[in-house]
Amino acid sequence: WSRSDFPWSKKLEANNKKVFGNHSFRPNQREVINATMSGCDVFVLMPTGGGKSLTYQLPALVCPGITLVVSPLVSLIQDQIMHLLQANIPAAYLSASMEWNEQQEIFRELNSGCCKYKLLYVTPEKVAKSDTLLRHLESLHSRDSLSRIVIDEAHCVSQWGHDFRPDYQGLGILKQKFPNTPVLALTATATASVKEDVVQALGLVNCIVFRQSFNRPNLWYSVIPKTKKCLDDIDKFIKENHFDECGIIYCLSRMDCEKVAEKLQECGHKASFYHGSMDPQQRAFVQKQWSKDEINIICATVAFGMGINKPDVRFVIHHSLPKSIEGYHQECGRAGRDGQRSSCVLYYSYSDYIRVKHMISQGVVEQSTYASVPRRNSNASSDRVLETNIENLLRMVHYSENDVDCRRLLQLLHFGEKFDGANCSKTCDNCHRALSYTEKDVTNAARQLVELVKSTGQQHSSSHILEVYRGSLSQHVKKYRHDSLNLHGAGKHLAKGEASRILHHLVIEDFLREDVKKSDLYGSLSSLLKVNESKAQNLCFGSQKVFIRFPTST
Ligand code: ADP
């Protein structure tokens, strides 16, 4: 697909320069354009900033007829249209929030024999809910004027993805109605199973897949244990490494954003906050201040992200646990777009896992801008989504607890990409420490911990279980008479960190489950460990073994 002797090649080159002002194509752009212009269905996985828009805007310009683009967010669509109009490419959009008159005007234009638009953007809701739109598309199609269908942020189709959006699932109707119109599905984030799901749901036929490495060599990754002094640590980290430089601090809750921003201001940083409870003017104001470098640091929920195109973001700090590896990768990806070295630091604590898990189950966690996941209704589909969200979160716990393997390798592995850890060149904390590791058989300790959870009635938290296991004689342990249990002190030869890693591993691998609840009127959380009997059977009475890698101390 990289040939430059297709009938359209010269026209493409000329328009890429003249209209879009680009001197050349970026990796895979030419290939994707050739494949879609040959009439194939195409699935494109290209990192954020890779140049996905050109792969459909350029074909739209040089092909007769209209390109339909399904995109999740009106503000993104407006931004795209503004750029297209500036380049003199006629484009329009339809969304449910538009005035009836405005919509009629666009429909009239689509109906006219010589429709001026080259691109028509719509939100997925519009496709799902508007028969009028489908009728107009049918009419365009019958006049050979529907040249291509583009699905942007295509991973939103999949329930396995981290940004499932129900209206995206209805987009399969487009291929059913227009089987011969080529579809181009674009995303910056999809694992192999998400990709399969998307291809199936959209009904893509003999689809050609382009995927690019997700590796961002200029990003340096590290995970730091989160303590009570976390905000002091963040202040120190910025002053020592990125003083007066630009960065984003992702926080879990709106209150966290404000708290972190306030602390950083006190420490002399030009910081502000950004979250979903602010009104649109306030948010636009902060974003503008940030783009103009009037403030350096934004403390934000994941609502801050889409459409950020600032090239010189030097650090992305996660003040609490991200909800998935995909989300984490995408949020980190906002750093270092100019290719310069940038830091991605994650402050991790297991108790944040409990907090995020609770928020996910309650449906109160703030979503990235375009996700809208059904949570509270108890139908099978939303149960499955909830389960997937919790699995995704556990993968993030696994990543954070791993203090041995190359972080880059772990992230890329998640996207199904092989990476030779030796090539990380010490750009992650684990490779930097370059510790060797030993793989220990911890089956015995794992069995004992499961037994202990059972014998204490599955009514206690992981920290209580660890205390009993390591032989604590605290008030709390005595109160429940857990100092008289057989397994009291069975793990006293293990370091605290080692015992907790084994316990967390049992949760990650689903032998144990955290049952998170609000424990009092003030909303403090309690989490009780429960045994997953079906899995634990094999561990306690069968041949299942548990291994964990531990760094070898130097
Ligand atoms: P994505 O959608 O993949 O995140 P965009 O389509 O928004 O990326 O492109 C990111 C930036 O790269 C835009 O500013 C765009 O103008 C620029 N860009 C895209 N293709 C090229 C190219 N071939 N040469 C130079 N700049 C490009």
From TrEMBL:
Q: What Enzyme Commission number(s) does the record list for this chain?
A: 5.6.2.4
Q: Where in the cell is it found?
A: Nucleus
Which catalytic reaction applies to this protein? Couples ATP hydrolysis with the unwinding of duplex DNA by translocating in the 3'-5' direction
Its required cofactor(s), as named, are:
Zn(2+)
* Record-level Gene Ontology MF annotations: 3'-5' DNA helicase activity; ATP binding; DNA binding; four-way junction helicase activity; hydrolase activity
The record places domain Helicase ATP-binding at 33-208
- Claim: Nuclease is one of the keywords in the record: no
Annotated GO CC locations: chromosome; cytoplasm; nucleus
| Alphabetized UniProt keyword annotations | ATP-binding, DNA-binding, Helicase, Hydrolase, Isomerase, Nucleotide-binding, Nucleus
Enzyme category, top tier: isomerase
Every copy of the Rhodanese domain together lies at 248-289
Domain of life according to the entry: Eukaryota
State if Magnesium is listed as a keyword.
Answer: no
Q: Name one GO biological process term.
A: DNA replication
What residues does the Helicase C-terminal domain cover? Answer: 233-381
Family (UniProt): Belongs to the helicase family. RecQ subfamily.
Name this polypeptide is given = DNA 3'-5' helicase
Q: Which organism is it from?
A: Stephania japonica
Q: What is the lineage of its organism?
A: Eukaryota, Viridiplantae, Streptophyta, Embryophyta, Tracheophyta
